[in-house]
Specification:
This protein has 210 residues and is an all-alpha fold. It has 8 helices and no strands. It has a single domain, classed as Fumarate reductase/succinate dehydrogenase, transmembrane subunit (3 helical TM bundles of succinate and fumarate reductases), CATH 1.20.1300.
Length: 210
């Protein structure tokens, strides 16, 4: 239940994070003002960061614990192992989760902390706000960075595809008339988030946003 709740909390953040970043298409002032508004509320910003970190720690820690319990429950593998209903997303949750963890760590060091690419960390726009727009545009002109982010989106999409429906089911939200809709939540939300993020990456890389 805790894994499900923390997972859904992280999904909500991922959706709003993508929606906020789409302001890149409105131009430098829109994105930089959006980032400035967040930084002008340090108490709320750090409360959200601490909350997200706590949810991530609980989610990852308990997921690993549950996985180890499952392995101990059956120390011997099946002689014949055939999947009947399990999707690729459900069978690769551990792999996509680890890939996603590595990607998030890279993303935080890259665009949030500016450790990997510090060149634009202190740059300001004409209004005196941090020039997040130029930092993002500079980042996604690098083919290597683009490939890393696209691979990260693949992991994110696979994880969301199964995680949302699984979390909803774990919390007991099941109804004969709504099961198809609930099962579709994961693929639909995952596709929307991934398409939004990929649109940002490719728009910069292809020179549509510059």
């Amino acid at each position: 239940m805790v894994i499900a709740l923390t997972g859904l909390g992280l999904v909500v953040f991922v959706v709003f994070h993508m929606l906020g970043n789409l302001q890149l298409f409105e131009g430098p002032l829109a994105l930089n003002r959006y980032a400035a508004v967040l930084r002008d509320m340090p108490i709320l910003l750090w409360a959200v960061r601490i909350g997200l970190l706590s949810m991530a720690v609980f989610h990852i820690g308990l997921a690993l614990q549950l996985s180890m319990q499952n392995r101990r429950a059956r120390p011997l593998e099946y002689t014949i192992h055939r999947y009947r209903k399990a999707s690729i997303a459900s069978r690769t949750m551990a792999i996509s989760g680890m890939a996603l963890l590595l990607f998030v760590a890279f993303h935080l060091l890259h665009l949030t902390a500016g450790v990997i690419d510090p060149g634009f960390a202190d740059r300001r726009d004409p209004e005196g706000n941090r020039d997040v727009y130029t930092k993002v545009v500079h980042a996604f002109q690098n083919p290597f960075v683009v490939i890393l982010y696209l691979v990260g989106q693949l992991g994110l999409g696979l994880h969301l595809r199964h995680a949302i429906a699984s979390s909803v089911q774990t919390m007991g939200f099941e109804h004969a008339g709504l099961n198809r809709l609930l099962k579709a939540l994961g693929p639909v939300i995952g596709l929307i988030v991934v398409l939004g993020n990929v649109a940002i990456i490719l728009a910069v890389f292809l020179g549509i946003v510059h």
